Amino acid sequence: MSSATTQSGLSRARRGVAPGGSGPVPGKRKSKLSAQATRTFFWLLLPSVVLLVLIHGYPLIYAAVQATHDGNLLQTGNFVGGQNFATVLTSPAFWKAAQFTLWFTIVGVFGSWLVGLGLALLLRTKIPAAGTFKVLLLLPWVVPIVVSSTAWNWLVATPDSLIPSLFRNLGMGTPLFLADPNLASITVMVFKVWVSFPFMMMMISAALASVDTTVYEAASMDGASRWQQFTQITLPLIARSTYISWILMTIFCVNDFPTIYLLTGGGPVNATTSLVVLAYRTVFQDFATGPGVAIAFLMTMTLVVISVILYRQIRKSSVE
What InterPro entries does this protein's entry cite (predicted)? Predict the structure, then answer.
């Protein structure tokens, strides 16, 4: 069967089952809300909107005030304008933390997504004790982070821990997973993937559950290989869910304080200090509120930009 015929069959299959596909939806009619219904919705939503503005608006304004002053936790201090932001942006510690945060986020997002995708696809097949297997896979996400970090410390923290002892017995030396800067960075990233992949697995499993399995049968009849079905049917159909999970996981990674602080405390020699850990240290250990809040504002602006970019991808992900 020719490649053109296969591509045509894959396109027809996607249009048949994809949400937002280009095919017409029978019986669908456009409806317009009456003016009275619009006003009713407005007044029903207004109290919630006002409450959200008050809850989130006041801390944001107060934080902006602190970011433009040279005060501490007790006093606002004098107005310094953008000096705190200039101090932060010219600090080597900030850029080192930003570099680690970038790699931590990339590995955390795509590492957990790849593991979650693989397990979600595996769970669609018939495997023994599937229910028990699903519960076990959710444990890294369900177990409190304090318990997980304590367990990982027991496994890798000292030369006499289980995993370093295993390496030593195999004649591979005694790696210091939390004492060597490079190994500590890798360990923290792997730990993040470990605690995050169940979330990705659930998101992808929910998206895959909405895909009609007959679309794969139709694609097979058109001569599509397993790889073509995966890249041209599975991935496009779960694209929206994928982008949403990437947005959420990016926010989780950039703002992740306990995963890093409980495992390494930001060490050794600040090798695993992320921006959020640096902001915490600056405010609560150095008592420099202005620069610490400035770091938090820069993190927030970066997350907004990334979220907008991925949100636009969600809107473009309608299957054609």
Answer: MetI-like, MetI-like_sf
